[in-house]
Amino acid sequence: VVSILLSAWLGAAVLAATVVAPAAFAVLPSRALAGALVGRVLPVVFIAGVVVALASLWLDSGDSGRAIRVRRVMLVVAAVSCAAAQFVVGPRIERVREEIAGAVEGLPPGDPRRIAFGRLHAASVAWLGLAMVAAATTLILVSVPARGAARRVAEPLVSAHS
Which of 11, 25, 137, 156 yields a CA-CA distance of 20 to 30 A from 49? Predict the structure, then answer.
């Protein structure tokens, strides 16, 4: 179940970041409209990321030891990253947009609001990237058996052939 949840969320996050956002900026008549569209998609991705990571943390009942501890840390990282992007960075981006009351690219490059927007946008992208890496790491750890478990499975096979 954990693999399915994380795979679905990771797929949605990758789709939003690599297809939806670039397509919106490529085909919509203004960057403001594209930003508005992406601004409607990302909260869904971020909130779903928090929910999926926490549900996966609760459902992860795998082996004991280092592998499960690392998986759990990665799930917490994913949840915190999505929460930071949605509930810390997102509202700050909205406040800067309200202060600008127009197109960000219409401001001079040195304008403090444009600089703040750029930094916040970079932070949002970084948080999403970190959550995606954490989810992918968890998926890899869930799908690869722990060394001890692999050894326990292999031992009867080795002794049967001796």
Answer: 25
